[in-house]
Amino acid sequence: MESNPITTRLTLRSVQAFHRQQHVKHYVVVGGSSTIAQAIISELIEQDSSIKVIVISRSSCPDKLNIAQVHWTQSQYDEQSLSQWIKDYRDQNIVGVFICNGQLQSTTKRAEKSLSEFNCDSFLQSMTINCAIPLLALQQVILQISPQQRTTIVVFNARVGSISDNNLGGWYSYRAAKAALNMALKTAAIEFARTHKHLSLISFHPGTIDSPLSRPYQSRLKKGQLRLASDLAKQLLLIVKLSPANGELSFIDWRGDTIGW
């Protein structure tokens, strides 16, 4: 039976398009509504116009990022939607992941200054946003990363997640959630060292960035302590570029300095 030359050409083009897509670098950003996340997306695109950025967020895509390179999905971060979202991008060349979810305090309740202000509902909400959702995102993303792929995963944390660095007290729920996230990431790093030997996993403290999260506390900051999200994005991408795939979890700040557990 003779082959159809038109069908053959179309099939060849499809195969060629598939292989081109395989070589396009894809980055994943979870928590796309945050000031820092959007700065990272913008910096990625500025550094490499050929890349694609896969984003998930509770909010809709801002106009400035409504471009062909950005694939934006809205979600409430439940397990089902997270699973479907990342499966839509199966077999992509994922080289970097940024999980940016986090919340210091809700709009109705400030972070605790003393134990007398501790509230179980606020604690559980903090654990969900600051620990459970990043883990759910990591759970789904790792399934789509080839064991042979060199990939860096950055999970946003905070210095207050360090037990050894806690010299001020306060912020019970936030501190506990960030410390729990570190323990979970350490456990994941042990697992990934067996399954994904070319992976770099970073628990990252961004410092104090000019954003809605830090705004209630900016008046107390020392001069020069508050920085721009765009500057952080540049520094973080440099850290990612230099990070070793050594099977260990790194807990570092925006300077690249190690933070004690």
UniProtKB/TrEMBL annotation:
A Gene Ontology cellular-component term: cytoplasm
A single MF term (Gene Ontology): oxidoreductase activity
Domain of life assignment: Bacteria
Pfam families recorded: adh_short
PANTHER family listed in its UniProt record: NAD(P)-BINDING ROSSMANN-FOLD SUPERFAMILY PROTEIN, SHORT-CHAIN DEHYDROGENASE/REDUCTASE
The protein, known as: SDR family NAD(P)-dependent oxidoreductase
Protein's organism: Alginatibacterium sediminis
